[in-house]
Request: fold
Amino acid sequence: MAAIKTVGVIGSGQMGNGIAHVAALAGFNVVLYDVSADRLKSAMATINGNLTRQVTKKTITEDAHKHALARITSSDSLDGLAACDLVIETAVEKEEVKRKIFHDLCAVLRPEAIIASNTSSISITRLAASTDRPEKFIGIHFMNPVPVMELAELIRGIATDDATFDAARAFVTAMGKQIAVSEDFPAFIVNRILLPMINEAIYTLYEGVGNVEAIDAAMKLGAHHPMGPLELADFIGLDTCLSIMQVLHEGLADSKYRPCPLLVKYVEAGWLGRKSQRGFYDYR
Ligand code: CAA
Reply:
């Protein structure tokens, strides 16, 4: 399989723009796709801001910043991804949305190209089966914020071939990330462990064991977590947290994964965390 040079990223939200940022810094050409030109514009501004922060912290040079930005083009049409060697999907954690994207992508993407999903929980085998190339499909799950976190999980579907796995591993390594290989089980490794902890923190709030500040302080100061679990839930997005808990609950059929009713209620209210300005904290 030819080396990966041009990477397409579907979705310009926090995961998509983070992957575009780090891939461009690592020397890959990047095409960032989203449905709206406005979202792309704001994603490019975010990437520029995060690169500037790295220049200020002296973790990258001004030249690296300039060259990385020059390597990213944006497109509000999937046709813009036609010539990519690898396309990474970072759309919302809803299987039907991802399936529709893969259907439309396969119609334009060259047949040799690899398709990856950054899904945080959904079966790679099932997503692969909705494409015309299950053997060239793989899970590459980055962590948020992508420029900071050292890990990516690699998940093979049942049909993923060795060449695809090797190319994905080489790409992730070139991005400077460590790899944890996970079997294709609901929510893989990180979220299988992290999300039940966050869900339990929400139950702790729901049952009145402690208030938001006490729960977060307890885990930050008592367990040395960089963020409290409720702050982290807001950071990940409460809709994403709920989707992952639902995948765990349905996929493993165990009541210990039942999403906390308070999490459900917040999502129903449109309180999705930082991105909607309101979650367990008020960001307005
Ligand atoms: N781009 C570039 N650099 C960034 C950045 C970004 N988007 N965000 C933060 N940074 C850098 C800062 O510049 C700073 O750099 P220095 O160490 O050189 O000073 C460093 O990261 C720390 O940032 P801050 O000083 O602003 O703030 P902080 O110390 O509170 O750290 C944090 C912020 C790195 C996000 C930290 O709070 C943290 O590690 N939180 C936990 C994050 C986590 O658990 N992520 C996984 C979520 S789960 C997931 O992603 C999987 C899923 O599918 C849901």
